[in-house]
Amino acid sequence: MDDQLIKGNKSIEAMSRQLTLVLVSLLCVALAADAAVVERIFHVPIILLFLIVKNLTISRLCERRVITAVNGSLPGPTLKVSEGDTVVIHVINDSPYNITIHWHGIFQKRSAWADGPNMITQCPIVPGNKYVYKFNVTEQEGTLWWHAHASSLRATVYGALVIRPRNASYPFPKPYREVPILLGEWWNANVVDVETQAFLSGGSLSNVSDAFTINGRPGHLYKCSKNHAYELEVVAGETYLLRIINSAVNNQLFFKIASHSFTVVAVDASYTKPYDTDVVVIAPGQTVDALMTADAPPSSYYMAARAYASAGLDGPPFDNTTTTAIVRYANSSNRPLRPSMPSMPAFDDTRTAHRFYTNLTGLLRPETPAVPLHVDERMFVAFGLGVSPCEPSQVMCNRSRGAITASMNNVSFQFPASISLLEAHYNGLDDGAVYTSDFPDNPPVMFDFTDAKLNTDPTLTALLYTEKGTRVKKVKYGATVEVVLQNTAMIGAENHPLHLHGFNFFVLAQGFGNYNNATAARDSYNLVDPQVRNTIAVPLRGWAVIRFVANNPGVWIMHCHLEQHLPLGLAMAFEVEDGTTPESVLPPPPSDFPTC
Ligand code: C2O
Protein backbone atom coordinates (compact mmCIF):
# COMPACT_ATOMS: atom_id res chain seq x y z
CA MET A 1 0.00 0.00 0.00
CA ASP A 2 2.88 2.29 0.96
CA ASP A 3 4.51 1.28 -2.25
CA GLN A 4 1.44 2.20 -4.14
CA LEU A 5 1.28 5.48 -2.32
CA ILE A 6 4.90 6.20 -3.20
CA LYS A 7 4.24 5.22 -6.76
CA GLY A 8 1.20 7.42 -6.79
CA ASN A 9 3.14 10.32 -5.35
CA LYS A 10 5.85 9.79 -7.91
CA SER A 11 3.42 9.82 -10.76
CA ILE A 12 1.79 12.98 -9.38
CA GLU A 13 5.25 14.51 -9.23
CA ALA A 14 5.94 13.41 -12.81
CA MET A 15 2.59 14.72 -13.91
CA SER A 16 3.13 18.06 -12.28
CA ARG A 17 6.61 18.23 -13.82
CA GLN A 18 5.08 17.47 -17.20
CA LEU A 19 2.40 20.04 -16.61
CA THR A 20 5.06 22.63 -15.76
CA LEU A 21 6.82 21.75 -19.00
CA VAL A 22 3.62 22.10 -20.96
CA LEU A 23 2.87 25.40 -19.24
CA VAL A 24 6.39 26.69 -19.90
CA SER A 25 6.22 25.74 -23.55
CA LEU A 26 2.75 27.26 -23.84
CA LEU A 27 4.16 30.41 -22.31
CA CYS A 28 7.01 30.32 -24.84
CA VAL A 29 4.52 30.00 -27.66
CA ALA A 30 2.54 32.88 -26.18
CA LEU A 31 5.69 34.99 -25.89
CA ALA A 32 6.70 34.07 -29.41
CA ALA A 33 3.26 35.10 -30.61
CA ASP A 34 3.91 38.34 -28.80
CA ALA A 35 6.85 39.22 -31.03
CA ALA A 36 7.49 36.74 -33.77
CA VAL A 37 9.97 36.75 -36.61
CA VAL A 38 8.22 36.69 -39.97
CA GLU A 39 10.72 35.40 -42.52
CA ARG A 40 9.99 35.08 -46.24
CA ILE A 41 11.74 34.72 -49.55
CA PHE A 42 10.79 37.09 -52.36
CA HIS A 43 11.96 35.79 -55.71
CA VAL A 44 11.93 38.45 -58.42
CA PRO A 45 10.94 36.68 -60.59
CA ILE A 46 10.51 33.00 -59.78
CA ILE A 47 13.01 30.29 -60.46
CA LEU A 48 11.25 27.14 -61.56
CA LEU A 49 12.24 23.77 -60.17
CA PHE A 50 14.54 22.95 -63.04
CA LEU A 51 16.42 26.16 -62.31
CA ILE A 52 15.55 28.00 -65.46
CA VAL A 53 15.09 31.63 -64.60
CA LYS A 54 11.62 32.54 -65.72
CA ASN A 55 9.50 35.61 -65.68
CA LEU A 56 5.82 35.37 -64.99
CA THR A 57 3.83 35.16 -68.23
CA ILE A 58 0.20 36.12 -67.92
CA SER A 59 -2.67 36.96 -70.23
CA ARG A 60 -4.44 40.25 -69.88
CA LEU A 61 -6.66 42.15 -72.33
CA CYS A 62 -6.13 39.60 -75.15
CA GLU A 63 -2.34 39.64 -74.91
CA ARG A 64 0.21 37.37 -73.33
CA ARG A 65 2.85 39.37 -71.52
CA VAL A 66 5.96 38.65 -69.54
CA ILE A 67 6.08 40.63 -66.32
CA THR A 68 8.40 41.04 -63.39
CA ALA A 69 6.58 39.81 -60.29
CA VAL A 70 7.42 38.46 -56.85
CA ASN A 71 7.10 34.69 -56.37
CA GLY A 72 5.20 34.40 -59.62
CA SER A 73 2.05 36.12 -58.46
CA LEU A 74 0.23 39.36 -59.23
CA PRO A 75 -0.27 41.02 -56.82
CA GLY A 76 2.65 39.56 -54.89
CA PRO A 77 2.31 37.75 -51.55
CA THR A 78 0.47 39.43 -48.68
CA LEU A 79 2.70 39.87 -45.65
CA LYS A 80 0.69 39.34 -42.46
CA VAL A 81 2.38 40.39 -39.27
CA SER A 82 1.46 41.49 -35.77
CA GLU A 83 2.56 44.75 -34.23
CA GLY A 84 5.91 44.14 -32.56
CA ASP A 85 7.08 41.48 -35.01
CA THR A 86 10.41 41.41 -36.77
CA VAL A 87 10.23 41.02 -40.54
CA VAL A 88 13.04 39.39 -42.51
CA ILE A 89 12.64 39.28 -46.29
CA HIS A 90 15.26 37.71 -48.52
CA VAL A 91 14.89 39.46 -51.87
CA ILE A 92 16.53 37.46 -54.63
CA ASN A 93 16.73 39.38 -57.89
CA ASP A 94 16.64 37.06 -60.86
CA SER A 95 15.00 39.68 -63.07
CA PRO A 96 16.93 41.55 -65.75
CA TYR A 97 16.35 44.84 -63.87
CA ASN A 98 17.93 46.64 -60.97
CA ILE A 99 15.44 46.39 -58.15
CA THR A 100 14.73 47.52 -54.61
CA ILE A 101 11.70 46.91 -52.39
CA HIS A 102 10.15 49.62 -50.22
CA TRP A 103 7.91 48.82 -47.24
CA HIS A 104 5.54 51.71 -47.73
CA GLY A 105 4.56 53.34 -44.44
CA ILE A 106 6.85 51.28 -42.18
CA PHE A 107 8.76 53.67 -39.89
CA GLN A 108 12.05 51.75 -40.13
CA LYS A 109 13.19 52.99 -36.73
CA ARG A 110 16.91 52.24 -36.58
CA SER A 111 16.65 50.26 -39.82
CA ALA A 112 16.81 53.02 -42.41
CA TRP A 113 19.00 50.70 -44.51
CA ALA A 114 15.91 48.57 -45.15
CA ASP A 115 13.63 51.39 -46.36
CA GLY A 116 14.29 50.65 -50.02
CA PRO A 117 14.04 53.75 -52.26
CA ASN A 118 16.66 53.37 -54.98
CA MET A 119 19.74 55.61 -54.48
CA ILE A 120 18.16 57.18 -51.39
CA THR A 121 18.73 54.47 -48.78
CA GLN A 122 20.53 51.89 -50.90
CA CYS A 123 22.01 51.09 -54.28
CA PRO A 124 19.81 48.67 -56.22
CA ILE A 125 19.97 44.90 -55.97
CA VAL A 126 21.51 44.15 -59.36
CA PRO A 127 20.37 41.14 -61.41
CA GLY A 128 21.66 37.96 -59.84
CA ASN A 129 22.11 39.49 -56.41
CA LYS A 130 20.16 39.44 -53.17
CA TYR A 131 19.59 41.55 -50.09
CA VAL A 132 17.90 40.78 -46.80
CA TYR A 133 15.50 43.48 -45.62
CA LYS A 134 15.19 43.26 -41.85
CA PHE A 135 13.03 45.57 -39.76
CA ASN A 136 10.75 45.72 -36.75
CA VAL A 137 7.11 46.70 -37.01
CA THR A 138 6.47 48.70 -33.88
CA GLU A 139 3.83 51.20 -32.81
CA GLN A 140 1.85 50.96 -36.01
CA GLU A 141 -1.03 48.74 -37.09
CA GLY A 142 -3.42 48.59 -39.99
CA THR A 143 -2.89 48.30 -43.72
CA LEU A 144 0.35 49.12 -45.48
CA TRP A 145 1.97 47.64 -48.55
CA TRP A 146 5.28 46.92 -50.22
CA HIS A 147 6.41 47.77 -53.72
CA ALA A 148 9.45 48.03 -55.97
CA HIS A 149 11.11 51.45 -55.65
CA ALA A 150 13.31 51.42 -58.76
CA SER A 151 12.10 52.61 -62.20
CA SER A 152 8.38 51.87 -62.67
CA LEU A 153 8.63 48.20 -61.74
CA ARG A 154 6.12 48.76 -58.96
CA ALA A 155 3.42 48.44 -61.63
CA THR A 156 3.75 44.67 -61.17
CA VAL A 157 5.99 44.30 -58.10
CA TYR A 158 3.71 45.04 -55.16
CA GLY A 159 1.66 43.43 -52.43
CA ALA A 160 -0.19 44.06 -49.16
CA LEU A 161 1.45 44.36 -45.73
CA VAL A 162 -1.12 43.79 -43.02
CA ILE A 163 -0.26 44.63 -39.42
CA ARG A 164 -2.66 43.19 -36.86
CA PRO A 165 -2.84 44.52 -33.32
CA ARG A 166 -0.68 42.42 -31.03
CA ASN A 167 -3.57 41.45 -28.79
CA ALA A 168 -6.02 41.16 -31.73
CA SER A 169 -8.11 43.99 -30.32
CA TYR A 170 -9.42 46.44 -32.88
CA PRO A 171 -11.05 49.72 -31.89
CA PHE A 172 -14.16 48.51 -33.75
CA PRO A 173 -16.25 45.30 -33.68
CA LYS A 174 -14.16 42.39 -34.89
CA PRO A 175 -14.94 41.85 -38.57
CA TYR A 176 -16.05 38.45 -39.87
CA ARG A 177 -13.27 38.45 -42.46
CA GLU A 178 -10.46 40.76 -43.59
CA VAL A 179 -9.90 41.18 -47.30
CA PRO A 180 -7.02 43.02 -48.99
CA ILE A 181 -8.27 44.95 -52.03
CA LEU A 182 -5.28 46.02 -54.11
CA LEU A 183 -6.13 48.51 -56.83
CA GLY A 184 -3.56 48.35 -59.61
CA GLU A 185 -2.79 49.67 -63.06
CA TRP A 186 -1.92 47.65 -66.14
CA TRP A 187 -0.04 48.36 -69.37
CA ASN A 188 -0.14 46.21 -72.47
CA ALA A 189 3.55 47.04 -72.74
CA ASN A 190 6.78 46.67 -70.83
CA VAL A 191 6.48 49.34 -68.12
CA VAL A 192 10.22 50.01 -68.03
CA ASP A 193 10.18 50.70 -71.79
CA VAL A 194 7.16 52.98 -71.38
CA GLU A 195 9.06 54.99 -68.78
CA THR A 196 12.17 55.21 -70.96
CA GLN A 197 10.10 56.50 -73.89
CA ALA A 198 8.52 59.17 -71.70
CA PHE A 199 11.98 60.29 -70.56
CA LEU A 200 13.42 60.41 -74.10
CA SER A 201 10.48 62.52 -75.21
CA GLY A 202 11.07 65.02 -72.42
CA GLY A 203 7.55 64.50 -71.14
CA SER A 204 5.70 64.97 -74.42
CA LEU A 205 4.71 61.30 -74.56
CA SER A 206 2.21 60.47 -71.87
CA ASN A 207 2.11 56.93 -70.60
CA VAL A 208 -1.60 56.20 -70.29
CA SER A 209 -2.30 52.72 -68.94
CA ASP A 210 -4.63 50.19 -70.58
CA ALA A 211 -6.55 49.06 -67.54
CA PHE A 212 -7.01 49.27 -63.82
CA THR A 213 -7.15 46.11 -61.77
CA ILE A 214 -8.62 44.80 -58.53
CA ASN A 215 -6.34 42.20 -56.94
CA GLY A 216 -4.50 41.92 -60.24
CA ARG A 217 -7.56 41.38 -62.44
CA PRO A 218 -9.14 43.97 -64.73
CA GLY A 219 -12.75 42.72 -64.62
CA HIS A 220 -15.59 42.29 -67.06
CA LEU A 221 -15.62 45.69 -68.72
CA TYR A 222 -12.38 45.00 -70.64
CA LYS A 223 -11.86 42.92 -73.74
CA CYS A 224 -10.92 39.26 -73.26
CA SER A 225 -11.52 39.62 -69.51
CA LYS A 226 -14.64 37.54 -68.93
CA ASN A 227 -12.67 35.25 -66.62
CA HIS A 228 -10.44 37.91 -65.21
CA ALA A 229 -12.49 39.35 -62.38
CA TYR A 230 -11.75 39.05 -58.69
CA GLU A 231 -14.67 37.61 -56.72
CA LEU A 232 -15.44 38.16 -53.06
CA GLU A 233 -18.00 35.75 -51.63
CA VAL A 234 -19.85 37.21 -48.67
CA VAL A 235 -22.24 35.80 -46.08
CA ALA A 236 -25.38 37.87 -45.69
CA GLY A 237 -25.37 39.92 -42.51
CA GLU A 238 -21.62 39.63 -41.85
CA THR A 239 -19.20 42.57 -41.75
CA TYR A 240 -15.99 42.60 -43.79
CA LEU A 241 -12.90 44.71 -43.27
CA LEU A 242 -11.74 45.78 -46.71
CA ARG A 243 -8.08 46.73 -46.64
CA ILE A 244 -8.06 48.94 -49.72
CA ILE A 245 -4.68 49.90 -51.16
CA ASN A 246 -4.10 52.21 -54.11
CA SER A 247 -1.14 50.49 -55.71
CA ALA A 248 -1.95 52.06 -59.08
CA VAL A 249 0.94 53.88 -60.67
CA ASN A 250 -0.29 57.26 -61.87
CA ASN A 251 -3.94 57.62 -60.88
CA GLN A 252 -6.06 58.51 -57.91
CA LEU A 253 -9.22 56.41 -57.78
CA PHE A 254 -12.86 56.46 -56.77
CA PHE A 255 -14.00 53.12 -55.33
CA LYS A 256 -17.59 51.98 -54.77
CA ILE A 257 -19.68 48.84 -54.32
CA ALA A 258 -23.22 48.82 -55.71
CA SER A 259 -25.90 48.89 -52.96
CA HIS A 260 -23.31 48.87 -50.15
CA SER A 261 -21.75 51.54 -48.03
CA PHE A 262 -18.61 51.75 -45.93
CA THR A 263 -17.45 52.86 -42.52
CA VAL A 264 -13.85 54.03 -42.79
CA VAL A 265 -11.92 53.06 -39.64
CA ALA A 266 -8.30 53.68 -40.66
CA VAL A 267 -6.16 55.29 -43.36
CA ASP A 268 -2.44 54.70 -43.94
CA ALA A 269 -2.34 52.35 -40.93
CA SER A 270 -3.69 55.00 -38.54
CA TYR A 271 -7.10 54.63 -36.95
CA THR A 272 -9.76 57.21 -37.79
CA LYS A 273 -13.02 58.10 -36.13
CA PRO A 274 -15.62 55.93 -37.89
CA TYR A 275 -16.61 57.77 -41.07
CA ASP A 276 -19.63 56.65 -43.09
CA THR A 277 -19.51 57.03 -46.86
CA ASP A 278 -20.64 55.23 -50.00
CA VAL A 279 -17.50 56.21 -51.91
CA VAL A 280 -13.81 55.80 -51.08
CA VAL A 281 -11.32 58.18 -52.65
CA ILE A 282 -7.75 56.99 -52.60
CA ALA A 283 -4.48 58.29 -54.03
CA PRO A 284 -1.51 56.12 -55.03
CA GLY A 285 0.36 55.22 -51.86
CA GLN A 286 -2.64 55.58 -49.58
CA THR A 287 -4.63 52.86 -47.86
CA VAL A 288 -8.19 52.90 -46.51
CA ASP A 289 -9.57 50.33 -44.06
CA ALA A 290 -13.33 50.23 -44.57
CA LEU A 291 -15.95 48.07 -42.87
CA MET A 292 -18.62 46.81 -45.24
CA THR A 293 -21.67 44.91 -44.03
CA ALA A 294 -23.26 42.49 -46.48
CA ASP A 295 -26.72 43.91 -45.87
CA ALA A 296 -28.11 44.16 -49.41
CA PRO A 297 -30.64 41.68 -50.83
CA PRO A 298 -28.61 38.50 -51.48
CA SER A 299 -27.43 38.69 -55.08
CA SER A 300 -24.29 39.76 -56.95
CA TYR A 301 -22.91 43.29 -57.07
CA TYR A 302 -20.00 44.97 -58.75
CA MET A 303 -17.30 46.75 -56.85
CA ALA A 304 -15.66 49.25 -59.17
CA ALA A 305 -12.80 51.72 -59.35
CA ARG A 306 -11.99 54.40 -61.87
CA ALA A 307 -9.87 57.50 -62.05
CA TYR A 308 -10.25 60.70 -60.09
CA ALA A 309 -8.61 62.81 -62.80
CA SER A 310 -8.07 65.99 -60.81
CA ALA A 311 -6.58 67.88 -63.77
CA GLY A 312 -9.99 67.61 -65.42
CA LEU A 313 -11.18 66.43 -68.79
CA ASP A 314 -9.18 69.14 -70.58
CA GLY A 315 -6.01 68.11 -68.75
CA PRO A 316 -3.48 65.54 -69.94
CA PRO A 317 -4.91 62.24 -71.22
CA PHE A 318 -5.65 59.63 -68.54
CA ASP A 319 -6.89 56.06 -68.36
CA ASN A 320 -10.69 56.51 -68.37
CA THR A 321 -11.52 52.80 -68.04
CA THR A 322 -13.26 51.13 -65.10
CA THR A 323 -12.12 48.03 -63.25
CA THR A 324 -14.67 45.79 -61.58
CA ALA A 325 -14.79 42.83 -59.22
CA ILE A 326 -17.79 40.89 -57.95
CA VAL A 327 -19.31 40.73 -54.49
CA ARG A 328 -21.33 37.50 -54.54
CA TYR A 329 -23.64 36.47 -51.69
CA ALA A 330 -23.10 32.86 -50.66
CA ASN A 331 -26.05 30.52 -51.22
CA SER A 332 -27.97 33.14 -53.09
CA SER A 333 -30.31 31.75 -55.70
CA ASN A 334 -30.40 35.19 -57.27
CA ARG A 335 -27.54 35.10 -59.75
CA PRO A 336 -28.08 37.94 -62.18
CA LEU A 337 -26.40 37.71 -65.57
CA ARG A 338 -24.94 41.10 -64.93
CA PRO A 339 -24.40 42.21 -61.33
CA SER A 340 -25.60 45.73 -60.63
CA MET A 341 -23.05 48.47 -61.14
CA PRO A 342 -22.42 51.37 -58.72
CA SER A 343 -22.82 54.82 -60.21
CA MET A 344 -19.36 56.33 -60.19
CA PRO A 345 -18.49 59.99 -59.53
CA ALA A 346 -17.48 62.03 -62.58
CA PHE A 347 -13.75 61.79 -63.37
CA ASP A 348 -13.22 65.41 -62.32
CA ASP A 349 -15.44 65.31 -59.21
CA THR A 350 -13.07 67.26 -56.98
CA ARG A 351 -15.92 68.10 -54.62
CA THR A 352 -16.43 64.42 -53.74
CA ALA A 353 -12.67 63.83 -53.47
CA HIS A 354 -12.19 66.85 -51.25
CA ARG A 355 -15.10 65.89 -49.01
CA PHE A 356 -13.64 62.44 -48.44
CA TYR A 357 -10.07 63.64 -47.99
CA THR A 358 -10.94 66.39 -45.53
CA ASN A 359 -13.71 64.80 -43.46
CA LEU A 360 -11.49 62.18 -41.87
CA THR A 361 -10.27 62.70 -38.32
CA GLY A 362 -7.92 60.68 -36.16
CA LEU A 363 -9.23 58.29 -33.50
CA LEU A 364 -8.09 59.38 -30.06
CA ARG A 365 -6.89 56.49 -27.92
CA PRO A 366 -4.63 56.59 -24.85
CA GLU A 367 -1.66 55.55 -27.01
CA THR A 368 -2.36 58.09 -29.79
CA PRO A 369 0.47 60.62 -29.87
CA ALA A 370 -0.73 64.19 -29.33
CA VAL A 371 -0.01 66.88 -31.90
CA PRO A 372 3.18 68.68 -30.80
CA LEU A 373 2.33 72.33 -30.30
CA HIS A 374 5.84 73.73 -30.41
CA VAL A 375 7.35 73.82 -33.92
CA ASP A 376 11.14 73.84 -34.44
CA GLU A 377 11.32 73.94 -38.23
CA ARG A 378 8.80 75.73 -40.44
CA MET A 379 8.94 75.21 -44.17
CA PHE A 380 6.85 76.52 -47.04
CA VAL A 381 7.27 74.23 -50.02
CA ALA A 382 5.76 75.18 -53.36
CA PHE A 383 5.75 72.18 -55.70
CA GLY A 384 4.50 71.13 -59.09
CA LEU A 385 5.61 70.77 -62.67
CA GLY A 386 8.01 73.01 -64.57
CA VAL A 387 10.44 72.99 -67.48
CA SER A 388 14.19 72.53 -67.95
CA PRO A 389 16.40 72.49 -71.04
CA CYS A 390 16.28 69.07 -72.72
CA GLU A 391 19.12 66.74 -71.75
CA PRO A 392 21.33 65.69 -74.68
CA SER A 393 20.16 62.10 -74.15
CA GLN A 394 16.49 63.12 -74.50
CA VAL A 395 16.55 62.59 -78.24
CA MET A 396 12.80 63.04 -78.78
CA CYS A 397 12.56 66.20 -76.65
CA ASN A 398 11.05 69.42 -78.01
CA ARG A 399 14.16 71.66 -77.81
CA SER A 400 12.31 74.94 -78.10
CA ARG A 401 9.86 74.14 -75.31
CA GLY A 402 12.27 72.18 -73.16
CA ALA A 403 11.61 69.06 -71.12
CA ILE A 404 8.83 68.80 -68.57
CA THR A 405 10.32 68.56 -65.12
CA ALA A 406 8.96 68.91 -61.61
CA SER A 407 10.30 70.55 -58.50
CA MET A 408 9.87 71.43 -54.84
CA ASN A 409 10.86 75.02 -54.04
CA ASN A 410 12.19 75.11 -57.58
CA VAL A 411 14.70 72.31 -56.92
CA SER A 412 14.19 69.51 -59.40
CA PHE A 413 15.46 66.52 -57.42
CA GLN A 414 18.34 64.60 -58.95
CA PHE A 415 19.03 61.11 -57.68
CA PRO A 416 22.72 60.54 -56.89
CA ALA A 417 24.45 58.19 -59.32
CA SER A 418 27.19 56.37 -57.45
CA ILE A 419 26.30 56.21 -53.76
CA SER A 420 23.00 56.30 -51.91
CA LEU A 421 22.16 59.41 -49.90
CA LEU A 422 21.94 57.41 -46.69
CA GLU A 423 25.40 55.93 -47.19
CA ALA A 424 26.82 59.35 -48.05
CA HIS A 425 25.17 60.78 -44.93
CA TYR A 426 26.49 57.93 -42.77
CA ASN A 427 30.01 58.52 -44.09
CA GLY A 428 29.77 62.27 -43.56
CA LEU A 429 29.96 63.06 -47.28
CA ASP A 430 27.75 66.15 -47.13
CA ASP A 431 30.31 68.46 -48.72
CA GLY A 432 28.40 68.75 -51.96
CA ALA A 433 30.07 65.91 -53.82
CA VAL A 434 26.91 63.83 -53.49
CA TYR A 435 24.39 66.24 -51.97
CA THR A 436 24.14 69.50 -50.11
CA SER A 437 22.17 70.10 -46.90
CA ASP A 438 20.67 73.35 -48.11
CA PHE A 439 17.21 72.52 -49.38
CA PRO A 440 15.47 75.92 -49.19
CA ASP A 441 12.82 76.55 -46.52
CA ASN A 442 10.92 78.80 -48.93
CA PRO A 443 10.42 79.19 -52.67
CA PRO A 444 12.95 81.53 -54.36
CA VAL A 445 10.13 84.00 -55.05
CA MET A 446 6.56 84.25 -53.83
CA PHE A 447 3.89 84.68 -56.49
CA ASP A 448 0.32 83.62 -57.19
CA PHE A 449 1.07 79.90 -57.33
CA THR A 450 -2.40 78.94 -58.48
CA ASP A 451 -2.76 81.40 -61.37
CA ALA A 452 -3.20 79.67 -64.74
CA LYS A 453 -1.64 82.74 -66.41
CA LEU A 454 1.73 81.39 -65.25
CA ASN A 455 1.72 79.22 -68.33
CA THR A 456 0.90 81.87 -70.91
CA ASP A 457 1.89 85.31 -69.64
CA PRO A 458 5.44 85.90 -71.04
CA THR A 459 6.34 88.04 -68.01
CA LEU A 460 5.65 85.07 -65.75
CA THR A 461 6.96 82.09 -67.72
CA ALA A 462 10.49 82.50 -66.29
CA LEU A 463 8.97 81.14 -63.06
CA LEU A 464 8.45 77.79 -64.78
CA TYR A 465 12.20 77.09 -65.00
CA THR A 466 13.46 74.67 -62.39
CA GLU A 467 17.01 74.06 -61.19
CA LYS A 468 18.36 70.56 -60.85
CA GLY A 469 19.99 69.60 -57.60
CA THR A 470 20.38 67.01 -54.86
CA ARG A 471 19.57 69.15 -51.87
CA VAL A 472 18.24 67.87 -48.56
CA LYS A 473 16.75 69.52 -45.50
CA LYS A 474 18.86 68.77 -42.44
CA VAL A 475 16.97 68.58 -39.13
CA LYS A 476 17.98 67.78 -35.59
CA TYR A 477 16.88 64.51 -34.05
CA GLY A 478 13.55 65.04 -32.34
CA ALA A 479 12.76 68.36 -34.02
CA THR A 480 9.12 69.10 -34.81
CA VAL A 481 8.81 69.98 -38.48
CA GLU A 482 5.85 71.77 -40.04
CA VAL A 483 5.56 71.95 -43.80
CA VAL A 484 3.07 74.00 -45.77
CA LEU A 485 2.72 72.13 -49.05
CA GLN A 486 1.62 74.60 -51.71
CA ASN A 487 0.48 73.01 -54.97
CA THR A 488 1.16 75.15 -58.06
CA ALA A 489 -0.69 75.52 -61.37
CA MET A 490 2.55 75.51 -63.37
CA ILE A 491 2.25 73.57 -66.66
CA GLY A 492 -0.96 72.08 -65.31
CA ALA A 493 -2.85 72.04 -62.03
CA GLU A 494 -3.55 68.68 -60.44
CA ASN A 495 -3.79 66.99 -57.07
CA HIS A 496 -0.40 65.45 -56.19
CA PRO A 497 -0.17 62.72 -53.51
CA LEU A 498 2.99 63.49 -51.52
CA HIS A 499 4.45 60.59 -49.56
CA LEU A 500 6.93 60.94 -46.70
CA HIS A 501 9.16 57.98 -45.87
CA GLY A 502 10.11 57.15 -42.29
CA PHE A 503 7.27 59.00 -40.53
CA ASN A 504 3.57 59.51 -40.16
CA PHE A 505 2.46 63.11 -40.12
CA PHE A 506 -0.53 64.99 -38.75
CA VAL A 507 -2.64 66.68 -41.44
CA LEU A 508 -3.47 69.97 -39.75
CA ALA A 509 -5.35 71.74 -42.53
CA GLN A 510 -6.06 71.72 -46.26
CA GLY A 511 -7.59 74.23 -48.60
CA PHE A 512 -7.81 75.73 -52.06
CA GLY A 513 -5.95 78.75 -53.40
CA ASN A 514 -2.73 80.19 -52.00
CA TYR A 515 -1.93 79.37 -48.40
CA ASN A 516 -2.12 82.61 -46.51
CA ASN A 517 -0.07 82.79 -43.39
CA ALA A 518 -1.56 86.12 -42.37
CA THR A 519 -5.20 85.14 -42.49
CA ALA A 520 -7.38 82.34 -41.25
CA ALA A 521 -5.19 79.34 -42.11
CA ARG A 522 -3.57 78.95 -38.68
CA ASP A 523 -6.88 79.33 -36.90
CA SER A 524 -8.28 76.45 -38.89
CA TYR A 525 -5.56 73.99 -37.85
CA ASN A 526 -6.89 70.82 -36.28
CA LEU A 527 -4.54 70.30 -33.33
CA VAL A 528 -6.93 67.97 -31.50
CA ASP A 529 -7.79 64.99 -33.67
CA PRO A 530 -6.21 65.45 -37.11
CA GLN A 531 -5.93 62.50 -39.48
CA VAL A 532 -2.53 60.84 -39.44
CA ARG A 533 -1.07 59.73 -42.75
CA ASN A 534 2.06 58.93 -44.69
CA THR A 535 0.65 60.18 -48.03
CA ILE A 536 -1.33 63.39 -48.45
CA ALA A 537 -3.25 64.19 -51.64
CA VAL A 538 -2.67 67.93 -51.83
CA PRO A 539 -5.69 69.68 -53.42
CA LEU A 540 -5.16 71.01 -56.91
CA ARG A 541 -4.56 74.76 -56.86
CA GLY A 542 -4.49 74.32 -53.10
CA TRP A 543 -2.37 73.46 -50.11
CA ALA A 544 -2.04 71.23 -47.07
CA VAL A 545 -0.19 71.65 -43.78
CA ILE A 546 1.58 68.67 -42.24
CA ARG A 547 3.51 68.34 -39.00
CA PHE A 548 5.75 65.52 -37.80
CA VAL A 549 8.41 64.77 -35.20
CA ALA A 550 11.78 63.87 -36.73
CA ASN A 551 12.40 61.05 -34.27
CA ASN A 552 14.03 58.71 -36.76
CA PRO A 553 17.69 59.17 -37.74
CA GLY A 554 18.47 58.68 -41.42
CA VAL A 555 17.65 60.10 -44.84
CA TRP A 556 13.99 60.07 -45.80
CA ILE A 557 12.61 60.96 -49.19
CA MET A 558 9.35 62.86 -49.62
CA HIS A 559 7.98 62.57 -53.13
CA CYS A 560 4.97 62.55 -55.38
CA HIS A 561 3.49 59.05 -55.50
CA LEU A 562 2.29 59.55 -59.07
CA GLU A 563 5.13 57.44 -60.40
CA GLN A 564 5.68 59.49 -63.54
CA HIS A 565 6.52 62.58 -61.46
CA LEU A 566 9.37 60.97 -59.51
CA PRO A 567 11.94 60.88 -62.35
CA LEU A 568 10.87 64.44 -63.23
CA GLY A 569 12.17 65.56 -59.84
CA LEU A 570 9.06 65.96 -57.66
CA ALA A 571 10.95 64.99 -54.54
CA MET A 572 13.19 66.19 -51.73
CA ALA A 573 14.69 64.48 -48.69
CA PHE A 574 15.00 65.06 -44.97
CA GLU A 575 18.36 64.30 -43.39
CA VAL A 576 17.65 63.56 -39.73
CA GLU A 577 20.77 63.75 -37.59
CA ASP A 578 21.64 61.28 -34.87
CA GLY A 579 20.40 61.96 -31.38
CA THR A 580 22.39 61.51 -28.20
CA THR A 581 20.97 58.25 -26.86
CA PRO A 582 21.86 54.78 -28.21
CA GLU A 583 18.29 54.40 -29.56
CA SER A 584 18.54 57.61 -31.55
CA VAL A 585 21.67 56.76 -33.52
CA LEU A 586 21.64 55.31 -37.02
CA PRO A 587 23.31 51.87 -36.74
CA PRO A 588 25.87 50.78 -39.37
CA PRO A 589 24.62 49.18 -42.60
CA PRO A 590 24.06 45.41 -42.60
CA SER A 591 26.88 43.23 -43.96
CA ASP A 592 25.05 42.37 -47.20
CA PHE A 593 24.14 45.99 -47.95
CA PRO A 594 24.17 46.55 -51.73
CA THR A 595 26.68 49.16 -52.84
CA CYS A 596 27.02 50.62 -56.31
CU1 C2O B 1 5.28 54.01 -51.85
CU2 C2O B 1 8.66 56.26 -51.97
O1 C2O B 1 6.96 55.09 -51.96
Automatic annotation (TrEMBL):
Keyword check for Glycoprotein: no
CDD domains: CuRO_1_LCC_plant, CuRO_2_LCC_plant, CuRO_3_LCC_plant
Annotated cofactor note: Binds 4 Cu cations per monomer.
Cofactor requirement: Cu cation
InterPro entries per the UniProt record, alphabetical: Cu-oxidase-like_N, Cu-oxidase_2nd, Cu-oxidase_C, Cu-oxidase_fam, Cu_oxidase_Cu_BS, Cupredoxin, CuRO_1_LCC, CuRO_2_LCC
Keywords: Apoplast, Copper, Lignin degradation, Metal-binding, Oxidoreductase, Repeat, Secreted
Single annotated GO MF: hydroquinone:oxygen oxidoreductase activity
UniProt cross-references to PROSITE patterns, sorted A to Z: MULTICOPPER_OXIDASE2 (PS00080)
UniProt-listed Enzyme Commission number(s): 1.10.3.2
Coarse class of the protein's main subcellular location: secreted
Biological processes annotated in GO: lignin catabolic process
Domain of life: Eukaryota
Any one Gene Ontology cellular component term annotated for this protein: apoplast
Catalytic activity: 4 hydroquinone + O2 = 4 benzosemiquinone + 2 H2O
Localization per Swiss-Prot or TrEMBL: Secreted, Extracellular space, Apoplast
Domain Plastocyanin-like stretches: 54-167, 178-331, 438-578
The keyword Nucleotide-binding is assigned to this record: no
Family recorded in the similarity comment: Belongs to the multicopper oxidase family.
Functional summary from the UniProt entry: Lignin degradation and detoxification of lignin-derived products.
Entry protein name: Laccase
Organism: Zingiber officinale
